[in-house]
Specification:
This protein is α+β, with helices and mostly antiparallel strands. It is built from three helices and twelve strands.
Amino acid sequence: MRRALAAVLVLLLGACTGSSPSTPQASGSPPGASPQAPPPPPSTPTATSTDVVAISPSPTASPSPSSPPTVSVSITDVAGVGIGIEADAAEARLRRILGRPDSVRPLPGCTGEVGRWVTWSTLTVLFVDDFDTSRGVARLAGWSVSPGRARFRYVLPYGIATGTPIRTVLEQVPGAEEFTPPDFPGAYSVHTERTPHLSWYSSTSDRRGVVSDVEYHGFECD
């Protein structure tokens, strides 16, 4: 009976003072500290329009075609190889400069000549012996430039190339003269005594045509 009364008194005293049973503290927290909520989980970043950048491959520039090499031909040399040099040595040097030739043709031998034509693209080089001083020993003697798709850009005497109007040749070349050989009907060319053996042939039988070939010291069987 006494124990029951004692329990009732304890309850009454607790109600009068407003206290309540204490809540046990979390381990590791200082006494009297309020319990803290656990930290929120790390947020997952949200992609925006600026988070992803599309990188397009840079366009590859197409290589520009290389310009054709320039070859100078004149009454003194072909690509720097002098007129009059012995044929084998001259051809070897031209092969190193111009590359492998497209064709090699022997001269017909109609007058007992010794030599050959060697052609690179639209450039043909003549190797022949000199009838007066070096009979039997071929030398670099001349050249011709013909129309067509050339591998080279030519620098020619007086700046006259194939396709140039014949009227321009007559106006531009000092001392230019028209020539129509009686043995070749329809043939027409222009030459000048100031540069012997240099000729410009026409695509027609008169001055209305254009230059079809430029030739220095050509060779023909009589």
